[in-house]
Design brief:
By secondary structure, the chain is of the alpha/beta class. It has helices spanning 16-28, 47-56, 84-89, 100-106, 110-122, 135-139, 143-157, 183-201, 203-208, 219-226, 243-250, and strands at residues 5-9, 37-42, 63-67, 94-97, 126-131, 166-169, 210-214, 233-236. It has a single domain (5-250), classed as Aldolase class I (TIM Barrel, Alpha-Beta Barrel). It contains 11 helices and 8 strands. β2 (37-42), α2 (47-56) and β3 (63-67) form a beta-alpha-beta unit. α1 (16-28) packs parallel to α2 and α7 packs parallel to α8 (183-201). Bound molecules: 1,3-dihydroxyacetonephosphate.
């Protein structure tokens, strides 16, 4: 059985004081979702603060953290990038890769997203590799073909499953729109992705690999989405900014 993972993607939100306030509330409420693994993807300068604060608060729950993006080289003349070594040094155990906003606004490709995801594993972290179709792609019946294309460079670069590798299916039309995929749409895409993982990395990897759903996940819809057989967690944007709604989503996990 795959243990569910509830991840918050804070995007370009939260300053130092807001981060501390969030953690203080989270630390006071961990009995609500004691068994589920929770991850925060924060702006890189917040990562050391999250680590320090969580220690100071007595590390009362299963909280992990990591960057929203990282580079595949350890060091060099790569202005504006984040070294995977530094990310790891800051206590990161997960890293996001290929988020649709990186793809849409910053030129991320299937190829570079795959390199970033695999760099996380090369430097001791686990990737959450994001993918998903646009509304036009869904409307023209291309969803599954797009998901396959998005995975191709990843499977070409990694012949075997990296231990603990995670996917996040995030239909672009559901991100920040309030319009969630239906349970059936999520399950269908997740099952298809698991099939791709099986083809590329084998049955054992497919059974172990966690596939999170992202796109307007809220406390009100989390339980049903997380109950789907192939939905192994959530990647939450807006609703992860409030610690109580993040916790309510975490409390909806199925194990
Ligand atoms: P929302 O939950 O705000 O739709 O964002 C989803 C997302 O992009 C998480 O990575």
């Amino acid at each position: 059985m795959r243990a569910q993972l509830i991840a918050g993607n804070w995007k370009l939100y939260k300053n130092l004081a807001e981060t501390k306030a969030f953690l203080a509330v989270l630390a006071g409420q961990t009995q609500q979702a004691p068994q589920v693994e929770q991850v925060l993807f924060a702006q890189a300068p917040l990562l050391p603060l999250i680590g320090e604060e969580w220690q100071r608060l007595g590390a009362p729950g299963r909280l992990a953290w990591g960057p929203q993006n990282l580079y595949w080289e350890e060091k060099g003349a790569f202005t504006g990038e984040l070294s995977p070594v530094l990310a790891r040094e800051l206590g990161s155990t997960y890293a996001l890769a290929g988020h649709s906003e990186r793809r849409q606004f910053f030129g991320e490709t299937n190829e570079t997203a795959a390199r970033r995801a695999l760099a996380a594993h090369a430097f001791g972290m686990k990737a959450v590799f994001c993918l998903g179709e646009s509304l036009a792609e869904r409307d023209s019946g291309r969803t599954m073909a797009v998901l396959k294309e998005q995975c191709q460079p990843l499977f070409a670069q990694a012949r075997e499953a990296p231990e603990g590798f995670c996917f996040a299916y995030e239909p672009v039309w559901a991100i920040g729109t309030g319009r969630t995929a239906t349970n059936a749409q999520a399950q269908e895409a997740h099952a298809f992705l698991r099939g791709l993982v099986q083809e590329a990395w084998g049955a054992e990897a497919a059974a172990k690999t966690r596939i999170l759903y992202g796109g307007s996940v809220k406390p009100e819809n989390a339980k049903e989405l997380l109950a789907q057989a192939d939905v192994d967690g959530a990647l939450v944007g807006g609703a992860s900014l409030d610690p109580l709604s993040f916790l309510a989503i975490a409390a909806a996990h199925k194990g």
